[in-house]
Amino acid sequence: MMNWRDLVQSIDVTQVVLAVTGGIGAAFLWMKRRYITFAAWRKARAERREAVDNLPVRVSGFAELLSGVSERTDRALSVLDAQTETLAEQNRVLGDISAMIHGEMELDPTPRFICDGTGRNLNVNTAYARLVGCGRDELLDFGYQRFLPADQNPMLMQGFLDASSKHCSFESTLVIRRPDGTRIAASVRTVPHPENDPPAHFWIGVVVAGTGQRACHSRPTPYRRRSSAPSSRSGLSRSPHSSQCGKAAKPARATRRCTRTNSRAVSLRYATA
Predict the structure, then answer these.
(1) What is the CATH number of the domain that holds 185?
(2) What's this model's pTM, rounded to 2 decimal places?
């Protein structure tokens, strides 16, 4: 039986050194890996603890942020409420004005219409529809062109567009073809609104039947303000239609002459008596 001395002598020192070195290296690597894992765990634990410690501060900051957002939201809502009330009031006023305009147009026996700068009808009254012999909806937009001769539409539209670009009134004669086949000679006149502040928001027009003219002659008429200076003869304000005003003044002079003649006759009658 081998004793321990023979066993020691049979062991190779090199193998022993290599085995010990390998064991020490393996143990070092294992401990290093464990240390790295433990260090990462400690770091994560510290971060979680720090996050938990800072949670009240973050919550308070978030609450302050929410409070600021809430205040700004309340101010924005108050402004929106005020604007909503203003818009509602404006819509109410506009609705009242629209109802007044619509009622005035409906009660007016003169055929009237409202159009935009392109000649598209926005509203017409019943008198206009009765004149043409159709429904009001048929005259909206550019539906009225169906009741005009084909050769008049280009001339009429071109004249109106020229007047619209110059912000002046527009006058024209035309022929209306009713659905029953009859033809009506009429004249149309449109004025811009507002009158003295171009561009116009819309145009107001009237149609007068029975002009006795068959051809279509468009004539833009620029707007002129009536002068406030008194006339040298009558003391009345001078109108753009001066010829019509002169014709209207003649019957007044005739009336004064008749009055003088009657007064003289009465005086002679009393003198004779």
Answers:
(1) 3.30.450.20
(2) 0.47
